[in-house]
Amino acid sequence: MFRRKRFGNLIAMQLDVFAVDHADRLQSLREALAQYRASDRYEAEERYGDYADEIDWAAEELSEMRDAYAMTLDPDLVEQYEHEFSKAVHKAYPAIAIILDTL
Fold first, then answer.
1. What is the pTM for the complete model shown?
2. Would you call 33 exposed, middle or buried from its count of C-beta atoms within 10 A (0-12, 13-18, 19+)?
3. How many domains is the chain built from?
4. Residue 92 within any structural domain of the chain
5. N or C: which end of the chain has fewer CB within 10 A?
């Protein structure tokens, strides 16, 4: 049975806002990943640290967005919203989602 996502449109808009508002930082994240992948073994650890810092920043931003909206919901709906939010982030930003799920 197909189930309509209750918060699908809202979450899509939230992720669009995140992408637009943080376009420069998301570009920095992509560049940090490219630099890590291109680094030699002597600088790989430092480059990975730069990339991880960007991932942590993005996960924190998304968690603040998620949590701020969740506070406005009826307590019975919070779990569903958070689940749908997590699935959407996993689809849009898989590397960020791994950290987001721990926050």
1. 0.89
2. middle
3. 1
4. yes
5. N
